[in-house]
Specification:
Elements: H1 13-26, H2 31-38, H3 42-49, H4 57-66
Helix pairs in contact: 2-3
Length: 77
């Protein structure tokens, strides 16, 4: 299980999907409810949560924002 209250370096789209799923479920929301709120399909939400690598990044960022996940790009030194 990934802790979503800490900064977590993302190593894969699968890990991002896991964070999204945990946050969504923690709020008691279904995939359909989040999809409707974002104007996306339930299938898209499911694909992101399963780590499908072809998900459009803009939609993914919108989806993360909708469930309260901020995504940061922190340059490595």
């Amino acid at each position: 299980m990934v802790t979503t209250t800490q900064q977590v370096p993302l190593d894969s789209i699968t890990q991002l999907g896991t964070i999204l799923r945990e946050k969504r479920k923690g709020q008691g929301l279904t995939q359909g409810e989040v999809a409707a709120h974002c104007g996306l399909s339930t299938r898209f939400v499911s694909e992101v949560e399963r780590g499908k690598a072809t998900a459009e990044i803009g939609k993914v960022l919108y989806l993360l924002k909708a469930v309260g996940v901020d995504l940061f790009a922190i340059p490595r030194s």
